[in-house]
Design goal:
CATH superfamily of the largest domain: HAD superfamily/HAD-like
Distance between the termini: 9 Å
Order of helices and strands: EEEHEHEHEHEEHEEEHEHEHEHE
Oligomer: single chain
Strand content: 15-25%
CATH class of the largest domain: Alpha Beta
Largest sheet: 6 strands, parallel
Length: 255
Amino acid sequence: MNNKCYFIDLDGTMYCGTKVIDGAIQWIDHLLDHHIKFIFLTNNSSRTQAQACNHMLKMGFRGIKPEHFYTSAMAAADKIAREYPTKKEAYYIGEDGIKEALINNGFNINPEKADFLFIGLDRNATYQDYSYALRLAHEGAKLVGTNNDRILLSEKGVNVGNGSVVALFEYATNTEAIKIGKPHNAIVEGALRYAKVSKEDVAIVGDNLETDILCGNNAGIETIFVTTGVHNMEDCYRLDIKPTYIVANLTGLMD
């Protein structure tokens, strides 16, 4: 499979919080040493490409660059900018990653009146922040959810994921958000354009059956399920989501 371009998940596949997952660094070294194309395809919208890169370099990864990362924030801003080229007023719940993506796609961050309200993970958001954004949605801003992960893994256990926040806004507005991140096709379409590859030349690698693997299955892309994160082999049967390949450790892909 070394002729593939790998779309690689981060949380649960490369690391868990600040803990590197066994085999991850060795496999990335292998890809770089053999000039095998890859990008990190992440539902995490909070970090910019540079921040995501620095986060991994500090954990001991080597040779990766900001351009190796494609995030749900980038996909969300790209999709909306393409489909609504005349509507450029936006507001957001989120961190630096979504702010940068919106600006890079020509959006004006407007806290007074917005065409779109982008909902990304914000670990410092308050009740007042959510309520202010909700008022913009009630005034007509259309909801865009960068991703719908229910939970996030950390060294201490599970944390609230952005999907739970998106659901809060959907319930409060009685509307459905535009869905971007894995398992939805929008992030795959954006990543294919970004990496300049066709889906026949891609394999999606991840630990989450309901996002990473289902995303590949929905898009007709080969999938590699690594049992180091959210789900295990038994979950394949419980959830009836079947990956193309299963590995216990990413070093198994180095043969």
